[in-house]
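Moderator note: this is an archived Q&A kept for reference. The question asked for a predicted structure of one protein chain; the sequence and the answer are reproduced below.
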Amino acid sequence: MAAVAPSVAQAQIPTAPAAPAAEAPPTTSPAPETSEATPGPAPEGAAKAPPGDEYFVEQPAPAGSAPPGNAAPAPPPFEPPPPPLSFPEPPPPPEARHLAPLNSLWLGARVGWFVPFGNVWARAEPVGTSDGTGYVLRGVPWSDYASSGPVVELDAGVRLSRAYTVFGLWERTQLGSGDNESGPDGKQDGAESDFWAVGLRASSNPDKLAFLTEVAVGYRRARTFFANDVQYQFTDAPFEARLGLGAELRLNGVPSLSSLLSIGVGGFGSVEKVAANGNALPLTRDVDEGDGHAWFTFTVGGHFDLFRSRK
C-alpha cells in the first residue's frame, strides 16, 4: 500500500512546546577524604599566620648572610652626623657684696693693760782684777722705776684696701711705782710712758671674723715721778718696734671690734734726772751704756670706717 503523504494542513498546525522537565534536586556529594595529616603547632620562634585568609610573608635574611644570586649588598642608609653639642653659657656670678669698704678714713681707740720689763740702762760697776780696776755692766731693770698699769691708745689712718690699713697711733700708759723706793730722791709716786708710732694693719677677712696682724715702729718716752717733784726721764728711743696678733670682728659696714696681744722692744739712749726747777742732770756716766727693754700689752678696741668708698 502506498504511503500517505501528510497534508498541508497537518504540516502547518503548530505543535505545543514540550513542558520543561522537572529539575532534579541537587545531590550533596560527600567531602573528599584527604590523606594529609592535620598540621601540628608551629615551632617556637616561627611567625604565626594571622586569622582569616593565609598569605605569604617573606622572612628577613639573617645578619651576615650573603644576598641571593650575585646581587651586590645594598649600601647602608645614609644617616646625617649628629649636630655638635652646644651648652648654654652659664650666667655671670653675682657681684660680691662686702661689709668692709675698699677705702676709708679709719679711726678708733683701744684700752688694755701694759707690762714693762727689761732694762732701762746698763750701769758700769767697778771690780778688782789682776791688772787693776775694771768695770762690769749690770742692767738696771725697768721694774725698779715702773710697774704695770692701764694703757689707752688712739688710732687714725687710711684703709688702703679692704685688708690693709696704714695708721698712726699715740699710746699713753699710766704705770705704777717701781720696786726701788729707797733711792736718794725718796719715795716714788707712779710713772707713765708715751709711744708715738706708724703702723700697718692686715686682716685675713675684713668682712667677718678675721685673724689680725699689726706692726708698728716709733718713739717712746718714759717718766718716773718722786714725792719731792723730781722725775726721771727715759728718752732717745727712736726705733721702738711692736708686733701684735689678734682677732677682728666686723659688725657692719662702719664699726668693727678687735682684740690684740702685742710685744715690743727698744732701748733708751738717754736717762736724766729733772729737778723741780727744770734743771736736767744725766743719770748715766761715760762708762755706762744703754740697754734693751721690752713690754707686753693686751688691748681691746673699736674702730670706724668713715667717708667710705662705694665699693
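Archived answer notes: The first strand starts at residue 104 and ends at 129.
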